[in-house]
Give the backbone structure.
Amino acid sequence: MPTRREFLASAALVPAALASAPSAQADSWQPGSVEHLLPTASHDRILLKASFRDAHPKPPQLRVGKRTVDGARTDTAGRFWRFDAAGLAPGEPHRLELVDARGRSLCDPWTLKTFPAPSAEPQSFRLLVYTCAGGDERVMNARGKHNFLPIALRRRFFERALALQPDAVISNGDHTYWDLHQTGSPNFAEDVIASVGRFDRKLPVLGTENELVHQRVCEHQIRSLYGNLFRSVPTFFIQDDHDYFENDDANDRMVTFPPDHFMLQLGRASRRLYFPEFLPDANRPAGLPGASAVDRSPGVGEAYGTIRCGRLAEVLLYDCRRYLTLAGPNAVIVAREAEDWLMGRMADREVRHVVHAPSMPPVWSAGKWGDWYPDFLDDQGVLGTKKPKPYYQAGWLAQHDRIFQAASAMPDRTPLIVSGDMHAIGECAVQQSGALDLSKNPVHVALPGPISTLNGWPSGGRRTPPLPAEHVRIDASIPALEENGFLLADFTPASIRLSFYRWNPSLPETAIDNLMPFQEVELKR
């Protein structure tokens, strides 16, 4: 095992080969020694995660207007830092600047706007949503084709989306793909594995060789992808199965979720180093699972979060993997305490629009174990419920119906769920879920589109495209399309307008730079 001095020295060298990550468009903003910036905000607080080319022996500082906030180190070497500024004025742009311990600038200043106060009455709010942005571009499938779009192309999607000036961003799941039980399969060439290294489950993640392996995985999938592109927009990262370094698999050899100790430490390390936690909200209990941990900023959440834009919109963010249970008819996908929170927010009349953003998609299924539904892909490639799905938990579907019933029951609101994970673009209205008649106020469900995955996933790997589960009856405005893209949701007091953007490799790459919505859906309140 390396000494601490050797570990710190080697950790400082990790990003050297990645310092010139490509970008589709030049940016006049000068990053200096800053490797990546990912901020989030509430109405009165900004939380920023940053990494630097060189280690800082003393805490760098964030200047917020005339205030100065010391950084808190989040890694072993001193390259990764978090900055937490509270007590800010709501609804205003704040000038930010990173400086070292001697006050020397580490990058150009920039601005970030806090959200309106909870009692404010904003007239508009634009939200960018996408899923599945991770993946090491060097990884190829068994047919010798790349599994993921090149980083430069993914950044091109981001630059186009950011040019449309969203007020906030949801990155919903699968920020990394490096499944522990699959690494070493044909999908991971030996030279790629050798360049990253292998995890040792007998050691902690932070402070050992595992920390360097983890950083190499994430440098190729998070740091080089995001860089500083999102510095001026609040970001909200929801974690899903691959973010705990496994696929949701269940068989006689293993059941991968809920995450075991090592998986959980890897998932927590990704959030600790690279993307911000969810800031507190007065209507979200501070004691929910994954919240108020002593090794994080005060009061933040890791699994359950909120985007609150005054009295106009509230988006409920939830990780569906970390706290799922295997209790048969009593099993849940969302922790019971978190389900109570969701129910309370849907019942409350304070906000005009209440939207769900779970990491697991409702409506559509590809037959894998970690679905809301019992649909299973049989040996003939038929998706349905005639054959029982091994290890499926009946309680998951019961919780699904409780959430749908409460969403449909919201008066004066059109219920909307925007999910992650499915690697597709789609939109539908759910008229019925099991025995529940939702036709008086159908629940709309949107698939926002993946940024990086290729090869027609899931049909390329699971032998079926995304199909509606047998449990639901829907009217689809967009059947699930296995193409790359993203979603913009525009909120006004009267409606939510969903604008869907799409691209596939048969089109020129330059087409990404001028993408326009191929379909829009307006949901009237």
In short: The domain at 118-524 is CATH 3.60.21.70 (Purple Acid Phosphatase; chain A, domain 2). The chain has eight helices and 26 strands. Residues 187 and 432 are 39 Å apart (CA to CA).
